[in-house]
Specification:
The chain is α+β, with helices and mostly antiparallel strands. It folds into 2 domains: about 55 residues; about 100 residues, 2-Layer Sandwich (Beta-Lactamase), CATH 3.30.450.20. The chain is about 45% helix and about 25% strand. The protein contains 4 helices and 5 strands. Strands 2-1-5-4-3 form a 5-stranded antiparallel beta sheet, with helices on both faces. Strand 4 and strand 5 form a beta hairpin. The protein is elongated.
């Protein structure tokens, strides 16, 4: 390597070495992501099991989407679990309550003081109102902050 120049052969050799290293790093990255996904799935399963055992109406909201919900809360809303997962939380909020709940959610996620317990109205699948009390706070979920809410139904059932 005279005068800072390398031969075509040396260049190709270095290029092959760098390609090999990139492939190795990509394999490590794939393995890391796979391991991380397994860890998230295990954690999610533990959260789900814990929530179901409490027999509470509860959910985890992250990025304004319902990421996890108990079957009892899904039943209260009139939906199957699969219909609710990864849908926007605002879909289940009474329109009059939307500004308040969005403000609470955004403020809580920003770390600001927000009432942890409040009353509001959510919507059943059939459009009827459900009066509830929500007890909410921040928890870690999938490596990021999320809103954990326990929902107590105040509407009397006939």
């Amino acid at each position: 390597m005279e005068n800072g120049y390398i031969s075509k052969y040396q260049f190709q050799k270095r290029l092959m070495y760098l390609h090999k290293r990139i492939v190795e790093f990509e394999k490590l990255d794939v393995e890391h992501r796979r391991t991380k996904s397994i860890t998230w799935l295990e954690t999610e399963e533990k959260y789900r099991d814990l929530l179901e055992q409490t027999k509470q109406n509860a959910c985890i909201i992250q990025d304004a989407k319902i990421r996890l919900i108990t079957s009892s809360l899904a039943d209260l809303l009139g939906f199957y679990l699969e219909e609710i997962i990864d849908t926007l939380m605002i879909r289940y909020v009474h329109p009059d309550e939307l500004p308040k709940l969005i403000k609470y959610y955004m403020s809580r996620m920003a770390g600001e003081d927000v009432p942890p317990v409040y009353k509001t109205i959510i919507k059943h699948k059939d459009g009827s109102d459900i009066y509830v009390e929500i007890n909410a706070g921040i928890i870690p979920y999938r490596g990021n902050p999320a809103d954990f809410a326990i929902v107590r139904c105040l509407t009397k059932k006939n």
